[in-house]
């Protein structure tokens, strides 16, 4: 089994500690997959500045394959994080930098490379929506993170993404059960059969072929919740694929329940370190 994150990379720059950490939804997925014993890679666009060099160096140390990445002249993506009333919140950034100005375009060599993978993950902040139809031609399962913003939940946006993916993730901590049920129904109507809605300490909700499942919660005293949702997503996906989930074979109820428990445990552990997965650097 091999997994790849396709899309965004950023540095999470903590202003209150003057420390930066590698991050970005697609990068976090690749690193968490590696931590779970899966051969993993990242495919995206780097700038040519100090932050780009830092992220590439740390990912190489971890063992993430970057061989199909592109490096362009320009500023790498970064997000500024500060401590506000005891909570770490995003307070600025450059909107993804060069990677969203010139997002990756998959050529024939890239697509041939992607045939090696059984799981591909991307998200709404990567600006790769035009490339998703190309992934539909592969055997790999494709997961996509829609985050929490309402602009990524319109029928128009869902129609641009859902026909080309197998798994959808939404952050739903501020949603009611009725709102979640309505969103899951709309996403299902757009063609996605497996839908995860994370809700923090309330426990995740998962819909598989319209059947609902409620995830367990593992409580810890968090050091930093950065990347916790990405960790949950990655652990659940890895567990389901290892349990036999393919495009033609749905995951069993037993695999789903075990996967939700496994994901809760793995996600809780990531809350005990700074940054999404550590590897901080003072600046």
Automatic annotation (TrEMBL):
**Protein name, UniProt field:** Fructoselysine 6-kinase
Species annotation: Brevibacillus choshinensis
Query: Known InterPro entries for this protein?
Result: PfkB_dom (IPR011611), Ribokinase-like (IPR029056)
Q: Which Pfam families does this one have?
A: PfkB
Q: What residue ranges are annotated as transmembrane?
A: none
Q: Which SUPFAM superfamilies match?
A: Ribokinase-like (SSF53613)
Specify the superkingdom.
Answer: Bacteria
Tell me which stretches of the chain form a coiled coil: none
Question: For the Carbohydrate kinase PfkB domain, which residue ranges apply?
Answer: 13-264
Q: Does the keyword Iron-sulfur apply?
A: no
Q: Keywords for this entry?
A: Kinase, Transferase
């Amino acid at each position: 089994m091999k997994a790849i994150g396709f899309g965004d990379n950023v540095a999470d720059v903590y202003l209150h500690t003057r420390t930066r950490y590698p991050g970005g939804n697609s990068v976090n997925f690749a690193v968490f997959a590696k931590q779970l014993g899966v051969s993993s890679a990242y495919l995206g666009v780097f700038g040519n500045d100090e932050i780009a060099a830092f992220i590439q160096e740390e990912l190489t140390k971890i063992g993430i394959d970057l061989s199909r990445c592109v490096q362009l002249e320009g500023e790498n993506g970064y997000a500024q994080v500060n401590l506000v009333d005891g909570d770490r919140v995003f307070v600025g950034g450059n909107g993804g930098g060069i990677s969203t100005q010139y997002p990756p375009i998959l050529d024939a060599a890239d697509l041939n490379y992607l045939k090696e993978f059984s799981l591909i993950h991307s998200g709404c902040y990567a600006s790769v929506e035009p490339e998703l139809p190309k992934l539909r031609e592969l055997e790999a399962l494709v997961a996509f993170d829609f985050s929490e913003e309402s602009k990524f939940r319109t029928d128009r946006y869902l129609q641009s993404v859902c026909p080309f993916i197998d798994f959808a993730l939404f952050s739903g901590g501020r949603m009611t059960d009725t709102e979640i049920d309505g969103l899951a129904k709309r996403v299902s109507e757009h063609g996605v059969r497996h839908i995860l809605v994370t809700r923090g300490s309330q426990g995740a909700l998962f819909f598989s072929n319209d059947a609902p499942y409620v995830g367990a919660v593992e409580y810890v005293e968090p050091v930093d919740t950065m990347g916790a949702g990405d960790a949950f997503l990655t652990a659940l996906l890895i567990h389901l694929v290892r349990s036999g989930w393919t495009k033609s074979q749905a995951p069993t109820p037993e695999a789903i329940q075990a996967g939700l428990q496994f994901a809760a445990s793995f996600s809780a552990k990531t809350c005990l370190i700074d940054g999404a997965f550590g590897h901080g650097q003072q600046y």
